[in-house]
Write a structure and sequence with these properties.
This protein is of the alpha/beta class. It folds into two domains: about 5-225, Glycogen Phosphorylase B (Rossmann fold), CATH 3.40.50.2000; about 235-410, Glycogen Phosphorylase B (Rossmann fold, 3-Layer(aba) Sandwich), CATH 3.40.50.2000. About 40% of the residues lie in helices and about 15% in strands. The protein has 17 helices and 13 strands. A seven-stranded parallel sheet has the order 3-2-1-4-5-6-7. Strands 10-9-8-11-12-13 form a six-stranded parallel sheet, sandwiched between helices. It starts with 6 loop residues before the first strand and ends with a helix. The mean pLDDT is about 90.
């Protein structure tokens, strides 16, 4: 006998690295319960433009625009202060929404979870969804009143592999937001993670003993990806023409800052020196800059695009290596595809994610990188890592790194298969477990 349908409300922070996994969670839940998906009004139109809106017949989700006053201008500044402005605007609008919403369970994205106090005042059950790794959540929960603070501009400086907040400090605005979130989390029923339990044992131990999370359901339900669809996309057609494990894929996600001309030059020279087909995702401004540099041309087959269906790229048999900023979605997609990574982190949890991949034996990291581009990463530094990871320096494709990739790939797929850890924990979330 199935459980009665309840009304779940899911709320996403207005950035696509958060919106996409939260929407994927909503798409899974709607098969068991009624779902309302809340996101900033300024992002809802972009969701439609990017064809991310799921078909209503298959996913009967109600989309609710959050009137938070945000505009596209809010995306043009990536400082800690600006992130706090966005979080504060979201929290204020959400508290008004929660005061009247009819819901059985509200799941809020971590950066805007402080607003859940308005749900608790009405005895509405809640959960917090963390779209990044469990290790990154541990870092945020390690923030206390005594945590050292630093100026906003220092937050973008290069940081060590552990991105240890205690050692490096955190801007005051982010510290206060973290403390407000922790206060709200004390009254939540569940912590939901877009990760895989088997891959983060140290984080599990931390969460089991932390004052905020030790008495709660901590549910690993990842990785959460869009469902693969048949595609006649130019990128997939191009990949279909390439040899097995022969393509170098370069993408730095939706970074708001352009790569400087000197760095674009070094990446281009690396790619043509490898003499392998390459797929490079570039913003329009970056490609215009690249063309203006009058760099040496190449006969190597290549494709430069504005956007690529990344999961399809990383699971395609032609893709050999991924040069990535190591956002968590990209990190999980590389694990799912079994592709080694040249890790080039820029900010926030990307440094921690890159170290996770290095420690797992599936990546080599470029040290001391940041969004400030304080130094130029040379052709030699990039190329050496590509050759070592793929085994191309010694002959055909294959290395200890690619072997470890295969192991992690199987772990990820086992987790979401029927009876796997992520599958079982998702069933517990929706109340459908035996």
């Amino acid at each position: 006998m199935s459980n009665p349908r309840k009304h779940f409300v899911l709320v996403a922070f207005p950035a696509f690295g958060h919106i996409i996994p939260t929407l994927e969670l909503a798409k899974k839940i709607v098969h068991f319960h009624d779902v309302t998906f809340v996101v900033s009004a300024v992002k809802l139109s972009v969701i439609r433009e990017r064809n991310l809106m799921p078909p209503l017949s298959e996913y009967p989700i109600t989309f609710l625009p959050l009137e938070d006053g945000l505009t596209p201008e809010n995306d043009k500044n990536v400082s800690a202060g600006q992130l706090s402005v966005i979080a504060n605007a979201s929290n204020e609008a959400l508290r008004k929404l929660y005061a009247t919403v009819a819901a059985d369970f509200v799941i809020a994205d971590f950066p805007i979870a402080a607003s859940l106090d308005a749900c608790h005042a009405r005895n509405i059950a809640t959960g917090v969804f963390h779209t990044a790794s469990a290790a990154a959540l541990c870092n945020k929960l390690a923030v206390t009143e005594t945590t050292v603070t630093i100026p906003d501009e220092q937050f973008l400086h290069p940081r060590n592999g552990n991105a240890d907040i205690g050692a490096h400090g955190i801007p005051e605005s982010m510290k206060q937001n973290n403390l407000s979130i922790q206060a709200a989390m004390k009254n939540t029923q569940a912590i939901i993670l877009n990760s895989i339990r088997e891959l983060e044992p140290q984080a599990i131990n931390f969460l089991a003993g932390h004052r905020v999370t030790k008495d709660k359901d901590v549910l690993f339900v990842g990785p959460l990806f869009p469902v693969d669809t048949d595609s006649d996309d130019t990128v997939v057609q191009w990949l279909d023409k390439q040899a097995y494990r022969n393509v170098v894929y370069v993408s730095f996600g939706s970074l708001l800052i352009d790569f400087p001309a000197k760095q674009l030059t070094e990446i281009w020279m690396t790619l043509i020196s490898l003499n392998r087909p390459f797929l490079w995702v570039l913003k329009e401004r970056e490609e215009t800059c690249l063309k203006a540099l009058n760099l040496p041309e190449t006969d190597t087959d290549h494709l430069i695009v504005r956007w690529a269906p990344q999961k399809l790229v990383l699971t395609h048999p032609a893709t050999a290596i991924f040069v990535s900023h190591c956002g968590w979605n990209s990190t999980m997609e590389s694990v799912w595809g079994g592709v080694p990574v040249v890790a080039w982190p820029m900010a926030a949890d990307q440094h921690q994610n890159s170290q996770f991949l290095v420690d797992s034996g599936v990546a080599l990291k470029i040290p001391n990188t940041s969004m400030l581009f304080e130094r130029v990463i040379s052709t030699q530094q990039i190329g050496q890592r590509v050759l070592e990871l793929t085994g191309w320096s010694n002959g055909p494709y294959g290395s200890e790194f690619t072997r470890c990739c295969g192991i992690m790939k199987e772990q990820a797929r086992a987790a979401v298969a029927a009876g796997g850890s992520s599958d079982n924990e998702f069933k517990k979330l929706v109340g459908s477990s035996p």
